[in-house]
Design goal:
Layout (H helix, E strand, L loop, with lengths): L1 E3 L3 H12 L6 E7 L5 H11 L14 E4 L5 E5 L23 E5 L5 H7 L1 E10 L4 H7 L8 E6 L12 H16 L8 E6 L3 H18 L3 E5 H9 L8 E8 L2 E7 L12 E6 L4 H6 L6 E3 L1 H5 L1 H6 L16 H10 L17 H8 L2
Parallel strand pairs: 2-5, 2-6, 4-5, 8-9, 10-13
Antiparallel strand pairs: 1-7, 3-4, 6-7, 10-11, 11-12
Helix pairs in contact: 1-2, 1-5, 5-6, 7-11
Length: about 350
Amino acid sequence: MTRESRSSEETERLGAELAAGLAAGDVVLIEGELGAGKTTFVRGACRALGVTGIVTSPTFTIGQRYSAPVPVAHVDLYRVGDLGSEDPELLADYLGPDTISFVEWPEGAEPEIAALASISRRVRIEHAGGDPATVAALAEVAGSDAPTLRIELRDDPEPGARPGHARRLLLMIGELLAAGGGWESVDRLAVGVGPGTFTGLRIGIATAHALASARGIPLVGVSTLRSVALAASTPAGGAGVLGLLDARRGQLFAAGWDPGSDPRRNPPSLEPSVLDPEALAGAVSALGRSPLAVGDGAVRFRAMLERAGAVVPPDGSALHRVSAVEHCALAADAQPGEPEAVRPAYLRLPDAELSRRQRP
């Protein structure tokens, strides 16, 4: 869900709305460039949680704890970067089961944060003025100088754990609506259509169909490969981008965009397909010199991709995550149709169907 803010006061109110759904032990990660409004957002959340003292960015002190009915911690890791060389206990005073914590600039510290507490929310704050297309889309609401607040809730299972989407999806939708102003603030629904796991796609698309039909809200289906590529793309003369999702069975779902091609507006040069690892070298060479490979499939087959000349971000990079923020960006540019027309893009038969066909 995307929310627009015209002023620091509105950004504080959005922080307060999010705070209403927080409980002890929750950690909120807040990303955004310098001056985007991260501390302003945290200040609004702190006020709503009962903090009465001055709330400023703890850039030089790393963190600050505030007294409130549930203690609140505010961490700023801008000057820390990678925590690998820091004291392992650096964050322990600010993250814990009895505290609500807000962490600015978390990008280089997510593994350490997750080891200490539960990451329950992610917020991205961006200036709408930097991207002409974004300005055009938001001009009627926000104006070109206002920051755009993007709130994303995630349910990322631990490695080896079963996904919880069947149990958590509707609960998280309710939390997001509570933080974002209710159904009256929703003008379009976006849903990833895959490729991906069969169960996950069915649950997500069936839920989106039901909500769109019940509420009379336009629904847009978004390619998951296009979405993960969008987050990594740099259309102004940047490298090619190869979106790769782990398809299991030793295969990958793949789609690629040439250098300078914008996944938001341009079709892929490598159409969405199922690839065996042996085909990766050809996919990489087709996208020019040193394309960027992203997605959990890129992590799994890192060695083969790098031998073929691709650049793969570090395993913990946010570029490997499928994000609802990119789903929404793609849906904002698309033309909605009938909800029933939004269907899964499986790309291959499910295991159950293959087993059935192999029976005598």
